[in-house]
TrEMBL record:
This is Sex hormone-binding globulin. It comes from Channa striata (Snakehead murrel). It is found in: Secreted. Homodimer. The keyword Transmembrane helix does not apply. The keyword Mitochondrion does not apply. One of its GO terms (cellular component) is extracellular region. Functions as an androgen transport protein, but may also be involved in receptor mediated processes. Each dimer binds one molecule of steroid. Specific for 5-alpha-dihydrotestosterone, testosterone, and 17-beta-estradiol. Regulates the plasma metabolic clearance rate of steroid hormones by controlling their plasma concentration. Keywords: Disulfide bond, Glycoprotein, Lipid-binding, Repeat, Secreted, Signal, Steroid-binding. Residues 1-24 form the signal peptide. SUPFAM superfamilies: Concanavalin A-like lectins/glucanases (SSF49899). One of its GO terms (molecular function) is steroid binding.
Amino acid sequence: MAVFRRTMASGLLFTLSLALLGWAVEGQGNGRNKKEVSGQTSLYLGQHRDIWRPLMHTTVNLSEIRSIKSSFQVRTFDPEGTIFYGDTKNGEDWFVLSLKDGICMMQISKEDVLVSVAGGPKLNDGKWHTLEVSNEGKFVILLVDGTSGLEVGMQSKQTEEVLAGELRLALGGILINEEKLIVQFGPQMDGCVREGNWLNLSLPWETDVEELWPCYQNIKSGSYFPGSGFAIFNTSVFPIEADGEIKIDFWGDFHQMDGTIMSIKGSGQKPMFILETNNNTKEVTLTFGEEKISMKDTFRRLAITFQTDSLQVLQDTNEPKTITLSISLVSHPGYLTTWKEGRLAIGGLLGEGEENIVSQFLTGCLEKIQVQGRDLDLDLAVKRTSVYSHSCPA
């Protein structure tokens, strides 16, 4: 069995963890209700699951390691999320690579040393970027598109020891309690990896998801709803303005969508507000209580404003003009209470019973969503399924 000194092991933990990112989607059973994944093609990281649970994982004997350099490409519009995790000693020593604010962040825990470092260029521009990681003595070096990104040195005061046994690897999640992280971050990552070149290892990876999501060849910024998913928020997290206004804005090609864009309801009530679009009739319909308005004009933005006595709907059309519609709220005095205590669903129709029951899913791309003037991050939803939160197929 190969013998690894502590300093070399730090680099190996880092670089071998990167191996996970190169394996592609080729599912085969292994008798343990797990799907084995291998290959070198693209892999989507943001598949729905428990937010910290890895998408894939594997275990390798340290004696099998022969290379300490790895490279891969990553593409995302998401500013934050887990890329991969690796550990030894069953999680006593661990390493995490993620994005935060669009830049790479490494966190390492090893014996008496805790390190967190972030830097390099922003990577969440929707372009493919090449990352290369290598170990040089006590230093781990990250290159981004061929130029210096991060360099981390680690040296413990404890006696160097022989490191043997197994290394655990995980993609898109971690195998330790998230409270152990030095810097907290949102783990969900809408992004893809491809063209991995990993340590000359050829072992299978395992995943317990039924079907792995695809990476689209071309993408644009936005949130994509494939017709089977939604995002639910507690409306209480969106403060009401001093004048009582509630404003929600959507951008996109509404005539290329189909299904429910948004619904709002209180606990145990019928939906108070529904916004839906029909791709066949090219009609966008807004329902508030028993009142309904339909819009057939071509527009790229829809601004909905709940005021104290009216509901204003503004359409920005392809021409330099706006169309404003309004509904009186005199017959709906309880809408503010519903907003303070209700739920907002993006991409589906909330049911009348359980708050989380959603139907009539949206198919299409919302290029931008704002609530009260702030961009809405679907990763922050209290419940989210089957949605690409930061990218749409182009």
